[in-house]
Amino acid sequence: MIYIGILNLYLYLYLYESVSVCLNTSEASKNRINRVIPMKSGSLPPPTPTPTPTDPMATPLLTDLYQFTMAYSYWKAGKHLHHSVFDLYFRKNPFRGEYTVFAGLEECIRFIANFKLNEDEIAFLRSAMPTCQDGFFHYLSQIDCSDVEVYAIPEGSIVFPKVPLMRIEGPVAVIQLLETPFLSLVNYASLVTTNAARHRLVAGQSKTLLEFGLRRAQGPDGGISASRYCYMGGFDATSNVAAGRLFGIPIRGTHSHAFVSSFMGLDEIVGKTLQSLDGSSQCNDFVSLVESWLEKIQGLKSSIGLYGETNKSELAAFTSYALAFPNNFLALVDTYDVMRSGVPNFCAVALALSDLGYRASGIRLDSGDLAYLSIQSRKFFVAVEREFGVVGFEKMTITASNDLNEETIDALNKQGHEVDAFGIGTYLVTCYAQPALGCVFKLVEINGQPRIKLSEDVTKVSIPCKKRCYRLYGKEGYPLLDIMTGENEPAPKVGERILCRHPFNESKRAYVVPQHVEELLKCYWAGNSSKEREELPPIKSIRSRCIEQLDHMRPDHMRRLNPTPYKVSVSAKLYDFIHFLWLSEAPVGELQ
Amino acid sequence: MIYIGILNLYLYLYLYESVSVCLNTSEASKNRINRVIPMKSGSLPPPTPTPTPTDPMATPLLTDLYQFTMAYSYWKAGKHLHHSVFDLYFRKNPFRGEYTVFAGLEECIRFIANFKLNEDEIAFLRSAMPTCQDGFFHYLSQIDCSDVEVYAIPEGSIVFPKVPLMRIEGPVAVIQLLETPFLSLVNYASLVTTNAARHRLVAGQSKTLLEFGLRRAQGPDGGISASRYCYMGGFDATSNVAAGRLFGIPIRGTHSHAFVSSFMGLDEIVGKTLQSLDGSSQCNDFVSLVESWLEKIQGLKSSIGLYGETNKSELAAFTSYALAFPNNFLALVDTYDVMRSGVPNFCAVALALSDLGYRASGIRLDSGDLAYLSIQSRKFFVAVEREFGVVGFEKMTITASNDLNEETIDALNKQGHEVDAFGIGTYLVTCYAQPALGCVFKLVEINGQPRIKLSEDVTKVSIPCKKRCYRLYGKEGYPLLDIMTGENEPAPKVGERILCRHPFNESKRAYVVPQHVEELLKCYWAGNSSKEREELPPIKSIRSRCIEQLDHMRPDHMRRLNPTPYKVSVSAKLYDFIHFLWLSEAPVGELQ
């Protein structure tokens, strides 16, 4: 018991010292004011209400039952208003990589801004927890997030294990109710954004990346979130119309195999007229024009080989599609046979369009050997350009879209290919290579007392204390490492040497002289307090932040195979405190 | 051209013959009437409207853009009303297994029952497709699913590759718009139901299975769908409150590590009184009662070893939770140390409750070696029962919940363990072992003309024609195989030998004499027609169907390693027709 007494004294000293340091950092925080929007100042108009969550299913009941049973226990113990601090973080980067992109913040803020249990929800909880006292349900009906504060790393930032993505503070019973929805809104969002960023890195900046995953996503919201966050992670467009509408993401799409096979032959096409692009003339029989071009192509005896009969239902479908979308003719060419039918049929229609001043968009390959078929198709286009003198025909866009993922794109790059755009679905949106990110939500302080969660597995031990987090940059402009400190420790300073320690490995330490220091956690929700809070930026800004940050990482952290881990550290003082608290909480065994 | 002419004659004969057979099967279909609810009969009250989709995000815009561009092309070609037949099916069972559970049907029916594009949606489409003519948007504003018919295998059935889970018929432009939402509603639903069923098979019927995956699911709907479909696949309960409310699924939950570490010590507990279960007496200091039991446990010198100081914050949390839920005390015991702290603390509280007539529920283990810790915990409970004479104490429920999946449960079974209930999250709900099911939606007939989609990969060739599907049962009561026939072929008959052919492998054939014949596809949506349609059963009935069907499969199809494939076949006539159509559509190469 004496030992425990000494520990408590130490704890007291630690906390006391923290308070004395507090004055220093409050000055530093003023520097952030020019980057934030004051939301609650007296002379300003009242802030616009934050919209509700995009998914109407994100209600206060979208949580685990134990959040409510705990809330009741807190309430019963008179503890529900105790001021708690929780960290939301993950322990391991996904996809065998060494980086993650943080996403989902805006949805969390929308969630808490509108957090309120309605009567029906309370009635359901009453039926689910029949032994709980009435006063508790009355309490539940009163709560909102006006006493909650949320600090977070900006959405679209590159983030690393153990560093809190979000710090959530407020009455413990309320904060617990937020745990599951926050994790549900951040885990998949960050995972799929990271996956999209990885696909962008492997495909390269020059390629167009299209997200085609809605049909294979994990439920409607999985599909809509995927489209949103893939765009955030660097994709160019989606096939998902609802996501396009909700988030202003460019949408793309042409036709499917069913469209092609729904035609039997050219005689089905009734309206055969097509105006030229400039409106100066009209072709009265576009079908015959297409047929005449097909004959010319079949007559070609060049490097592209001999072409016999092509599939007539396919030709009819292409012709029909071109009549509907002469400005945007892109054909799916693998319904019957890419090189024997799809490509020559496409070229016939594209050449007919060209006669009327239209420029076809290109083809989509959805099966077979994409490297080979893209190269053969390109050769065909080159030959057509040469034979018929149609300038630019060889530049036709080739889109590929059959079960693509990081590995297959990497393999295509190594083999050589002529693909300009990748349409990626299943592997992207379900995060097939690792379909879950393990974000957790851990209590780090209650009523000013730092708390720790131990585990047999050291990677699962939580880092206690309300913390500040910084990213330190080196001479070359790259981030060197992230460091966490106690809330009231002085901030690392540019040009000043600081000791950075691995949080759990005693011998891993480094001195760092930062050239630039970035504080990571910013206030995004201040409740009823008068603190300034950051604005929620539009998706295009988040996307730009993500692309820019990815671009500014040291390349060895970003490579696909055996990347170098980015260092995450704690201050010397926080290191000591973690280990002090660990020993004070872990029971000492007794051996005989 | 002569060759093509002969093929057309053959096609004509095929179709003609089908018509003549039609009369036979219409009789057979009458037998189903007693199992269906007539929805549109003159004397009956009007049917209740089908509710909207559970996820409000499942709107007509939840689709790929190409569905709308195709709709426009069909409309432009005057083809949009052509009567089309599409099959929804998958090509390969998930999880290296040989079976799949079909789910998501009810949501599809809800979707089409409420399918209607509103003005805002039309306006968005107009902006996204600016070159399309006004008449098209007018057409879009008029469409609903009154001309659509949906035939499906009942939800919760065991299903196999290539056999249509659903056959969707109606105007081609409308049916195309349904493709993506249907796939989005069926793919994940069937995948996660199958995953749940697999977890049930490996855990065994005697264990309690709890779904704890909301926080790791792919978005809010991913979480809600997971809870629903895991219950359907045989789970007992979920932690997800919203799913409990929406679907009437039992919900479960107690407390987390944060709750445990939020307490500092017993002096925090203010209200210490607890009434006995029968109300006859009151304990005024439950905390002291707990402490006295802990001392007795620490004094035990039995086979369970020596116990020193336990963690006091944990003891306070357990005591507090027991005061809130004396009838349902279940403690998470691994926050600090399972055997040195969690289990003795739990027993102290459980014994104190027992003094007042309450029976504690048990413990939850969330880290470490679950086999070892469950066995040690059980030994502890046995010793407590023996030492203190508390009858039934050894039967305390042990729940395990740390990153469990099929493999870890199988490994636990092999090692031996004392776990009674498994709480399964991440691996279950994200279907980690295979996070996507590849259901597709293929055109098989248009305006009475069978259609085929070819591919370099033979497994991707579609099976043409509007079909009927049957499951044939053998003498032992097990299903023998599924067979697809042309729509108008006579149904297989009990006791009559029928030739069943592999659809693509010429040499794989078998004669079958079925003991029972089950027609698989039933009408679930009849549009405005007067056809009877099946009722949508409640989730509990679907769950029972699933459990019963799993139970009635031949065990070698169901085993985890190297299961025997279940046979899927076509009639001799359909076989011939598939290959005839294939040859007629595939272009013939020209070699020099």
UniProtKB/TrEMBL annotation, chains A, B:
<dbReference type="InterPro" id="IPR013785">
    <property type="entry name" value="Aldolase_TIM"/>
</dbReference>
<dbReference type="InterPro" id="IPR040727">
    <property type="entry name" value="NAPRTase_N"/>
</dbReference>
<dbReference type="InterPro" id="IPR007229">
    <property type="entry name" value="Nic_PRibTrfase-Fam"/>
</dbReference>
<feature type="domain" description="Nicotinate phosphoribosyltransferase N-terminal">
    <location>
        <begin position="61"/>
        <end position="187"/>
    </location>
</feature>
<keyword id="KW-0328">Glycosyltransferase</keyword>
<dbReference type="Pfam" id="PF04095">
    <property type="entry name" value="NAPRTase"/>
</dbReference>
<feature type="signal peptide">
    <location>
        <begin position="1"/>
        <end position="22"/>
    </location>
</feature>
<keyword id="KW-0460">Magnesium</keyword>
<dbReference type="GO" id="GO:0034355">
    <property type="term" value="P:NAD+ biosynthetic process via the salvage pathway"/>
</dbReference>
<dbReference type="Pfam" id="PF17956">
    <property type="entry name" value="NAPRTase_C"/>
</dbReference>
<keyword id="KW-0479">Metal-binding</keyword>
<dbReference type="InterPro" id="IPR041525">
    <property type="entry name" value="N/Namide_PRibTrfase"/>
</dbReference>
<keyword id="KW-0808">Transferase</keyword>
<comment type="pathway">
    <text>Cofactor biosynthesis; NAD(+) biosynthesis; nicotinate D-ribonucleotide from nicotinate: step 1/1.</text>
</comment>
<feature type="domain" description="Nicotinate phosphoribosyltransferase C-terminal">
    <location>
        <begin position="466"/>
        <end position="577"/>
    </location>
</feature>
<keyword id="KW-0732">Signal</keyword>
<keyword id="KW-0662">Pyridine nucleotide biosynthesis</keyword>
<keyword id="KW-0436">Ligase</keyword>
<dbReference type="GO" id="GO:0004516">
    <property type="term" value="F:nicotinate phosphoribosyltransferase activity"/>
</dbReference>
<dbReference type="GO" id="GO:0046872">
    <property type="term" value="F:metal ion binding"/>
</dbReference>
<keyword id="KW-0464">Manganese</keyword>
<dbReference type="Pfam" id="PF17767">
    <property type="entry name" value="NAPRTase_N"/>
</dbReference>
<comment type="function">
    <text>Catalyzes the first step in the biosynthesis of NAD from nicotinic acid, the ATP-dependent synthesis of beta-nicotinate D-ribonucleotide from nicotinate and 5-phospho-D-ribose 1-phosphate. Helps prevent cellular oxidative stress via its role in NAD biosynthesis.</text>
</comment>
<keyword id="KW-0597">Phosphoprotein</keyword>
<dbReference type="GO" id="GO:0016757">
    <property type="term" value="F:glycosyltransferase activity"/>
</dbReference>
<dbReference type="GO" id="GO:0005829">
    <property type="term" value="C:cytosol"/>
</dbReference>
<dbReference type="InterPro" id="IPR036068">
    <property type="entry name" value="Nicotinate_pribotase-like_C"/>
</dbReference>
<feature type="domain" description="Nicotinate/nicotinamide phosphoribosyltransferase">
    <location>
        <begin position="233"/>
        <end position="460"/>
    </location>
</feature>
<protein>
    <recommendedName>
        <fullName>Nicotinate phosphoribosyltransferase</fullName>
        <ecNumber>6.3.4.21</ecNumber>
    </recommendedName>
</protein>
<dbReference type="InterPro" id="IPR006405">
    <property type="entry name" value="Nic_PRibTrfase_pncB"/>
</dbReference>
<comment type="similarity">
    <text>Belongs to the NAPRTase family.</text>
</comment>
<dbReference type="InterPro" id="IPR041619">
    <property type="entry name" value="NAPRTase_C"/>
</dbReference>
